[in-house]
Write a structure and sequence with these properties.
The chain is of the alpha/beta class and 320 residues long. The chain has a single domain, classed as Rossmann fold (3-Layer(aba) Sandwich). 42% of the residues lie in helices and 14% in strands. It contains 11 helices and 12 strands. It has a 6-stranded parallel sheet, with helices on both faces. A two-stranded parallel sheet has the order 6-9. The protein has a two-stranded parallel ribbon with strand order 7-12. Helix 4 runs parallel beside helix 5, helix 6 crosses helix 10 and helix 8 packs across helix 10. The longest helix has 21 residues. The radius of gyration is 19 Å and the shape is globular.
Length: 320
């Protein structure tokens, strides 16, 4: 175990969320003193809440994971909330960290949705500013990219210390399966499980199936975040990915096979595909953090399916 962590106080915003729970668990394993305040105690979209949170708990490290997130449908229905809430939360946390006497470094987590719609594959961090994000994800992606700019100017002017990570599409145990906010993998697992249980012989799937994604198991992402907190300081973004690109069609067929659904997959090309392709170059993470993703896609899906079947009520809980 690294001597860096014992008795070091770390505050994780969003620590009860999908990614946050994995990060908190890894920090506790390393011996850190971890605080994970709930949004009911500190609404980070409200001025002064972030300052009060840091004054109350006096952490030396802040890992900012609190976010409002959802799949393509949620992005289409609530783009204003996705933009403003995420922008404000990150902005207030960054500024509170700057003015805090205790905070030594802030770790920010961005999104692959920040990349331009037609970024050359694999996405390299140098391409982040080469165009506008895919339209359905743009409000969220731009809000998260604004945090990178904020970190860069604060480091330049005030010497504030940061690490900024960009994970690809996360999946795994603890994900959100409620239809109003679920991303592609939990949405597909729920559809297939429901179809098997009700005897349906077909399911409807959004888009054409030709778009691709790069899926990152949540525990692998959490390990990278903890490594960055310990080992890295800088305002250059760091991609986190697996170097495996999977089409949506392959994703659906794999989930259906694992669940045991043998019916028809009906594609609806009137629904958006989202960004045409996604795969990142994660070589910077290996160079700076010594990190590589460890979990094969099929194995990660099996673990996710097993968790969902064992935790249906929690997984399908409505947001809010």
């Amino acid at each position: 175990m690294s001597p860096f962590w014992p008795d070091r106080r770390v505050l994780v915003t969003g620590g009860s969320g999908f990614l946050g729970r994995q990060v908190v668990a890894k920090l506790l394993e390393r011996g850190a003193d971890v605080i994970a305040p709930r949004s009911a105690a500190y609404d980070l979209t409200v001025p002064g809440a972030a300052e009060a949170m840091l004054a109350d708990h006096r952490p030396s490290l802040v890992v900012h994971l609190a976010a409002r997130v959802g799949g393509i449908g949620f992005n289409l229905v609530e783009p204003a909330h996705l933009y403003l809430d995420n922008l404000l939360m990150g902005t207030y946390v960054i500024e509170a960290g700057r003015s805090s006497a205790s905070v030594d470094k802030t770790i920010l987590v961005g999104t692959v949705c920040s990349y331009p719609k037609f970024t050359p594959v694999p996405f390299r961090e140098t391409s982040l500013w080469d165009g506008y994000p895919e339209e359905t994800n743009a409000p969220y992606g731009i809000a998260k990219k604004a945090h990178l700019v904020h970190a860069q100017v604060n480091q330049a002017q005030y010497g504030q210390r940061f690490s900024y990570l960009i994970p690809t599409n996360l999946y795994g145990p603890g994900d959100k399966f409620h239809p109003s906010v679920s991303h592609v993998i939990p949405a597909l697992i729920k559809k297939c499980v429901d179809a098997v249980e009700t005897g349906e012989d077909k399911i409807d799937v959004w888009g054409t199936g030709t778009a691709s994604r790069e899926y990152l198991y949540v525990e692998d992402a959490a390990e990278a975040i903890v490594l960055a907190a310990e080992l890295h300081e800088g305002i250059e973004p760091i991609n986190l990915g697996t170097d495996r690109e999977v089409t949506i069609r392959e994703t659906v067929e794999t989930v259906a096979r694992l669940v045991g659904f043998e019916g028809e997959l009906r594609w609806d090309p009137t629904k958006p595909d989202g960004q045409p392709r996604r795969r990142v170059d994660a070589s910077r993470a290996e160079q700076l953090l010594g990190w590589r993703a460890q979990t094969p896609f099929d194995e990660g899906l099996r673990r996710t399916l097993a968790w969902y079947l064992a935790n249906r009520a929690e997984a399908e809980r409505p947001p809010g």
